[in-house]
Amino acid sequence: MIYFDHAATTPVRSEVLEAMLPFFSEKFGNASSVYKLAQVNKKALDDARAKVATILGAQPNEIYFTSGGTEANNWALKGMAEALRKQGNHLITTKIEHHAVLRTCQYLEKQGFEVTYLDVDENGLITPEQVEKALKKETILISIMYANNEIGTIMPVAEIGKIARTHGVIFHTDAVQAVGQLPIDVNRDQIDLLSLSGHKFYGPKGTGALYVRRGLPLPSLLHGGGQERGRRGGTENVPGIVGLATALELAYQDLDIKTAKIQALRDYMIDGIYQRIPHCRLNGDRTQRLPNNVNFSFAFVEGESLLLLLDLEGIAASSGSACTSGSLDPSHVLLALGLPHELAHGSLRLTLGENNTREEVDLLLEKLPLFVQRMRDMSPLYEDYLKQNS
Fold first, then answer.
1. If you average pLDDT over residues 262-285, what whole number do you get?
2. Which residues are catalytic?
3. Dihedral angle of Cα 93, 170, 8, 237, to the nearest 10 degrees
4. Of 76, 215, 236, 332, which one's alpha carbon is 20 to 30 angstroms from that of 385?
5. Listing from the earlier edge strand, what are the strands of the sheet with 114-118?
């Protein structure tokens, strides 16, 4: 199988699995207990926390482990909304956030909060000026993703962080797609809360973390036995946390070299699709883009059928977010760019990983034009288009 869906999930690295395995067997102790077996696990947690903090430019006591990005996003938004409700009830986000943010915002609206959903331009970008203009005296939280999971557009996070800090507003970013691909520094970008997920950078599923700037009054989302310094109840997932930290550390080793390789493949794929397939549109900004992301819409084509044809050739891809793959609705991200429904339905997301090769991209570039043309040959809309333009 040729795997072009790394934005959905990544395989666990062999080194990560090797680091995790002892904590399923001989190092099985509960990190909250006091005897020696347990303290081995407590040290593993401390080491993992320090590794994550170093990579993010944070302090170890600002890192809280979660079950993934969705929990981290829910915790950041619900927690800060609850903590700051007496100061205001207004939040700012964008129309192209992951559903873990959008649906949390919708939940908060039902609790009496007001949310401003910023429009994006045709490439999925917002401007810092939009954020500043949306601020009110009641604004307590800005939540804007670092990079979009579908179209790969990278937001002006540092500028937004500066605006938030200047106006005394808390700034959260969903960095699930960015961590492991881009250099992250929470102090440089003036980020107050940051969400990440282990399975996006070759770590295990069911693992994540939330960076919380020291001093923020973030209440617990999960109440229990006082783990995670009293902020997240529940026995710690030591194997998963060790795996997450190991994967993150490996992701940032020789990051520049890996990024250059993947970005070159990305650009080769984009150019190849443009050259071989007419009536297509690259979704997302051409340059302010994650190094591994390719997202196209093809006119007169249905994206789900295209995925099935690719799958029959052993090529795994996506039509958008893996979290909404069962939905028949067009992508909310593509609609926010201004695409009509029929073009949004013809989308294909191809996301590269460290082990993809030029030969695999060449095979895609050989097969994809054939499949697109096959589907267009069956489309009455395409037939009408040809008649009108003959």
1. 98
2. 323
3. -150
4. 332
5. 63-66, 208-212, 193-197, 170-174, 139-143, 90-94, 114-118
Tell me the whole-structure pTM to 2 decimals. Answer: 0.96
Using alpha carbons, list the distances in angstroms from residue 247 to 60, 208, 360: 17, 12, 25
Q: Chain-wide mean pLDDT for the chain? A: 96
Backbone dihedral angles phi then psi of residue 330, each to the nearest 5 degrees = -65, 155
Cα–Cα distance measured from residue 336 to residue 154, given in angstroms and rounded to the nearest whole number: 16
| pLDDT tens column, 133-181 | 999 999 999 999 999 999 999 999 999 999 999 999 999 999 999 999 9
Tokens of 163: 């605006």
CB 192 within 8 A of CB 144: no
Q: Where are the alpha helices (DSSP H) in the chain?
A: 14-20, 36-56, 69-83, 99-110, 128-134, 157-166, 227-230, 238-251, 255-276, 303-312, 332-336, 341-344, 358-377, 380-388
CATH for the stretch 14-251: 3.40.640.10
CB contact at 8 A, 150 and 321: yes
The alpha carbons of the chain give a radius of gyration, in whole angstroms, of 22
Nearest 5°: phi and psi at 282? -75, 125
Helix, strand, coil percent values for the chain (each to nearest 5): 45, 15, 40
Query: Does residue 28 carry a pLDDT above 60?
Result: yes
CATH dotted code for 2-7+254-388: 3.90.1150.10
Token match 């700051």: residue? 84
β-bridge partners, 350: 294
Res 325: pLDDT = 52
Structural tokens at position 129:
């000026």
Break the chain into its structural domains and give their ranges: 2-7+254-388, 14-251
Measure Cα distances from 87 to 83, 138, 139, 170, 214 in Å. Answer: 9, 7, 8, 12, 19
Whether the Cβ atoms of residue 241 and residue 65 lie closer than 8 Å to each other? yes
Question: 275: Cβ–Cβ under 8 A, 6 or more apart, which residues?
Answer: none
Distance in angstroms (rounded) separating the CA atoms of residues 10 and 174: 18
Report the alpha-carbon distance of residue 149 to residue 349 in Å, rounded: 10
Tokens of 387: 């008649």
The 3-state DSSP class for residue 182 equals strand
Question: Rounded to the nearest 5°, which phi and psi values hold at 161?
Answer: -60, -40
CA distances from 343 to 12, 116, 280 (A): 34, 27, 9
- Judged against a pLDDT cut of 80, whether residue 320 lies above it is answered with no
